[in-house]
Amino acid sequence: MAENETLECITEHERILQEIESTDTACVGPTLRSIYDDQPNAHKRFMEKLDARIRNHDREIEKMCNFHHQGFVDAITELLKVRADAEKLMGQVTDTNRRLQEAGREVTAQTEEVIRCRIQQRNMATTVEKLQLCIPVLEMYSKLKEQLESKRYYAALKTMEQLEKVFIPRVSQYRFCQIMAENLPRLREEIKEISMSDLKDFLESIRKHSDKVGETAMRQAQQHRTFNSAVAKQASIGHYTKPVYFLNGQTHAQNGLMIDDDTGDDEEADEEILTAQDLVDFSPVYRCLHIYTVLGDRETFENYYRKQRKKQARLVLQPQANMHETVEGYRRYFNQIVGFFVVEDHILHATRGLVTRAFTDELWNMALSKIIAVLRTHSSYCDDPDLVLELKNLIVIFADTLQGYGFLVNRLFDLLFEVRDQYNETLLKKWALVFREIFELDNYSPIPVETEEEYKMVVSRFPFHDAEIEKQDFPKKLPMSQSVPQIYTQVKELIYASLKFSESLHRSSTEIDDMLRKSTNLLLTRTLSSCLQNLIKKPHIGLTELVQIIINTTHLEQACKYLEEFITNITNVSPETVHTTRLYGLATFKDARHAAEGEIYTKLNQKIDEFIQLADYEWGMAESDGRASGYLMDLINFLRSTFQVFTHLPNNNNDHASMSGKVAQTACMSACKHLSTSLMQMLLDTELKQISMGAIQQFNLDVIQCELFASSEPVPGFQGDTLQLAFIDLRQLLDLFMVWDWSTYLADYGQPTSKYLRVNPATALALLEKMKDTSKKNNIFSQFRKNDRDKQKLIETVVKQLRSLVNGMSS
């Protein structure tokens, strides 16, 4: 068995060795692992077997090396011999190449020289031949250059024609001829540009002098307007022609026809007038137009001229940034525009087709849109009405001037309506400052009049008529304050200022009347109304001043009819006309009066609140002091003195008396109601937790003083106990607690005849709970006294019943 196992082991080792020799080294791991997995000490036998195999391979390798060693040695020896021969051969080849290069260098140089000489000979012969053809072309081209330098443009054009048709075709294959042929169109353009230099000088000249040309034309138009106005006043003078403006020794009537200046009646006056021809030389444009016509490119010239004039028009129409600051800025702007179109009108009539009426109309429409946009923008910056008025006059002269040259200016007169609105706005801003100053300087007291002269002076400034005051002896007082005649005068001044703008607008009397009335309405409804509202809201304006403001607004309201008569006398438009605008001053002054009355009520209530804040009740007092609180007596004295202001107002006029009486009654009723509400709120203040019966008694004394004040008729005119009803809620509530008449209150609750009809259950419950808490705190030993226990039970019972009433009301 041992032998068999040994044979098997040897056989297995042989297999493993073969597998190792034939397998990749990366996969030898599993094979080697199988050696250790076999019988014990098997690896030792495997190592012995492996060593035997290695020794066999070594013997085989040694045999193979011994067999091939001699052949390897022989090959190395032969290779060493060949290297020496190769180095010798390399040296011989290098030497041979050097000697060959030195021998052929001279031959190569001579050969190249011969070739170069033959090429030069051939080129020279060809050049001479071709130059004979090219010299005439060059001579003609040189002649062309000389003609261009000497500005003989017509001869230059003829030379260019000969070059193109005769000379250049003979040598067209050469590049310089092609360059010449390509340069000829450029030279023609150069001739055009050179000939147009005069035109550019002309354009620059008219750009510089357009301001002066426009100034001259506008001055003539203004003189014509002045003369026309003078002629219109003389009905005996014969027919007067349309405006005529002088230009280039000729005159242009409004229909645009040319009129010879010899027909004028005053040749000396004509000679003194500077014309566009005196300021600008028009001959360059005529020459340039002739050259382009000869070139057959008149259309290009026309297009160029028109394009340049459009560019100049845009530059002229571009205003300066500070143009709106002075009238001179507007005048320069208008002068440049007028000068531009005066020149265009001259070119239109002096040339044939360079510009057309359609082109000038297109330019004018473009300019008109830009002018209107510029004037809208810059006029909006103006806050000086005088500057806006001067701008309006400039626009009128500007429009009349261009209208004389046949341009449509209707849109400019439409623009004047927008400028008028801007003018009105600046007037309103200016008059707002005037009104504020008047109100600040006013003493808000009736105007004292010592003598009849003073009375007449006031009446001349303001339409005041009162028969009773006129019967009084001097000195006497007028009911309004000094601001009333001043405001009336300023309103008339604004009407005059608005009338200035309406002049020269070619509008009917009805339209002017409408403008004046609308301006006056804006002043009354916006500016004066705003100033009055701001005045009324100022903190330093007291009750006396507010009453005087009410009287003042009444007189101003009555004076509105006299303002309408004033406008009618200016425009001669009957107020019965259908489209006549009425003045809205009535509503303005009524609103101001209502605002003043409301401010009176507000200030009174604020003063009452200030006194109420001084109240310092001791809510836990056992008994009252027996007299009213000091703060309340001071408040009542203040109210008495305040309402005496109304009785001291001048009431000679029944309207004044009625007005002051109504204001006083409303103010008095408002004050009493506010006082009653404030006292009620004091009782029901949530921060007040406890109230004693003594505090209720003290509070009752204060309310009694309020009722005495109401019954004393501080302001006449109340019927019965109307004023006392303001304290009825407080009176019934205090009576309920003072009498402790809860059975009656609960039994009669909800009936119209109830004694405590004005007492709300929620109010009574809130006050009773404050007294309930006081009873619990102060009467610690009340539970040992039967009367106190009964009273506490009664309070608890009443509280429950009141809560049920409150819950029933809420459900």
UniProtKB/TrEMBL annotation:
Gene3D superfamilies: Dsl1p vesicle tethering complex, Tip20p subunit, domain D, Exocyst complex subunit Sec15 C-terminal domain, N-terminal subdomain. Signal peptide: none annotated. InterPro entries: EXOC6/Sec15, EXOC6/Sec15_C, EXOC6/Sec15_C_dom1, EXOC6_Sec15_N, EXOC6PINT-1/Sec15/Tip20_C_dom2. Residues 412-770 form the Exocyst complex subunit EXOC6/Sec15 C-terminal domain. Keywords: Exocytosis, Transport. One of its GO terms (biological process) is intracellular protein transport. GO terms for cellular component: exocyst; plasma membrane. Residues 49-218 form the Exocyst complex component EXOC6/Sec15 N-terminal domain. Belongs to the SEC15 family. Component of the exocyst complex involved in the docking of exocytic vesicles with fusion sites on the plasma membrane. This is Exocyst complex component.
